[in-house]
Structure formats: C-alpha cells, structure tokens
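name: query_chain
kind: protein
chains: 1
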Amino acid sequence: MPVHTSESSQGGQISRGKGVGLGLALASALTFGGAGPAAKPLIEAGLDPLHVVWLRVAGAALVMLPFAVRHRALVLRRPALLAGFGLLAVAGAQACYFAALSRIPVGVALLIEYLAPALVLGWVRFVQRRPVSRAAALGVVLAAGGLACVVEVWSGLSLDALGLLFALGAACCQVGYFVLADQGSEAGEQAPNPLGVIAYGLLVGAAVLTVVARPWSMDWSVLAGSADMNGTVVPAFALLGWIVLVATVVAYITGVLSVRRLSPQVAGVVACLEAVVATVLAWVLLGEHLSAPQILGGAVVLLGAFIAQSSTPAKGSPEPVAAGGAERELSAPGTTA
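structure:
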C-alpha cells in the first residue's frame, strides 16, 4: 500500500506541475499576442520599428534590473546561455518581428513566425538526432501548405518579400527562444534561475539593439503624442507601457517558466495561440482583415504545428519528442542563481 500511495502522490505532483505549466504557457501566448497590435500604431505614428523594439527591450531590462543584480553569479556561470538568449530570444526575435509587421499585416507576420514549433521539430531530428514520427512529419507538411495559403503564393507572392523574410527570421530566432529557455531544466539545484536568465537576456538584447537602432536619433516627441488605432486615439506612452510591462516582462517570465515545466515542444504548441490572439486583436483594433484563404491557411499552420509537436516519436526513440518536463520537477525542484 505505501508504494501505491507514493506512486499516486508522485502522479498528482506531475499532473499539477503540467497544469501550472500549461497555464503559464497560455498566459505567455496571450500577453505576447498583444505586442504587435500595440506596436504597429507607434510605428505608423512615426517611430522606426527598431526604435520601438529598443524601447520595448530597454524598458523591460530596466524593470528586470533588480533580478540581474540578485543573480549576478550567472554572468560567470552561464555566459553563453545569457548571450544566446539575449541575441536570439530577445534582440533577434523582436527586431525581426517588428520589422516584419511594419511591412506586412500583424496576423501574417505572427503566422509565419509560428512556423517555429515545426522548426523546433527539425532541431530535435537533425541536431539532437532523435527520431520523429510520421505524424510529426505530416504536421510540418501541413504547416508549410498553410503558409503558402497565408502568403497567397498563387498571386505571385503578393505580400512584401522583405517583410516575409523578416518574419521567417523571427521564426528562426523563436526556435532559439524555446531551446534556450529549456537549458538547465534538468540540472537540479544548478539550474540557472529563470528570472536571472530573462533579466540578463534583456540587458544583452538592449545593448545589442542600442548599437543597431541608435536610439539617440529617435523622434522622442512621438511618445508625448498619440497614436491612431483604426480611428481611436490612444496615448502613445500608454501603448509603450503595455508593450514593456505586459507584452514583454510578463510574457517572457510566464513563457520561460512554462518551458521549464513542460518542454520546448509542448510549450511551442500552446504558444501558437499567440498568432490567433494577435490576428484577432489586429482585426478588431487595427482593422486588418485577412482573406478567407489566409484565415484557412492560418488555421492549417496552427494545426500542422500542433500535430508536429504533440505527436509521439518514432519507434526506438529514447525519449518522447513532445515529452513534458513536469516529471523533471520532482527530481530537480530547486533553481539557484
């Protein structure tokens, strides 16, 4: 009986851990999804996309600065992780995404960026050299077919080509976000503190973007004015506050914590909801209507990403491709600096 009780208790902890992880992943998708619809009016009001990215990352880095001070030992312990997270998950992903949405609709930019879950599968197969199932391969094919509908290839690629390339760049950087957010989740008490990783990632991203964006050339007066959201006048500073506090700080914290409790693959599935949230918000707030084929294609992209990431691995795989990380918490509950 004691053995069964222990197994039942362990199963309950795993279930609760996975439930918390799914809740965090959903919160991250919802908050990240509000970034594009809030940022586009600022860009249309006169701010360069890179300047909006710099304001977003630098503002979030300032908010997270106390966590960087508290976990300063990470600089010596995990410098490569912090640099990679800052360059890919912060600077690269945000810069490419904002550059994309300045040239193509928010919904299209997000749908292309969320090819990332299928790309994560490619990472698992070709970099980690773990087998994947036929269903996973089918998911990738569906995602690619759905993308063809989103960009309406039969119209001779009617969308801005450079905007599409920026969106694809954001997808590649998004892969880095999911993979790096999972680093150290199996390291027990030596696992890097997620808040410290986020704080230093934002600081690294802000430093890189300062060189690239050159904020001293920005038209700061735009922030003192207002922006137009499909006919509604909104204070520019309020939009920036939302982007920094909710769509960046809250979004990154909940996102990284969800990956730690689940896995890059499972968290990527839930994160696909960001594309849906952003598309709906852009439709309602910005009046960016998508055509019927684009809506259908977007649904196929999300379906393909879901199948690719939630499918079981091919026979002989030592570990499920989409295995959650809740089990890891039972043996590695602590995180230090």
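note: Residues 312-337 have pLDDT under 50 and may be disordered.
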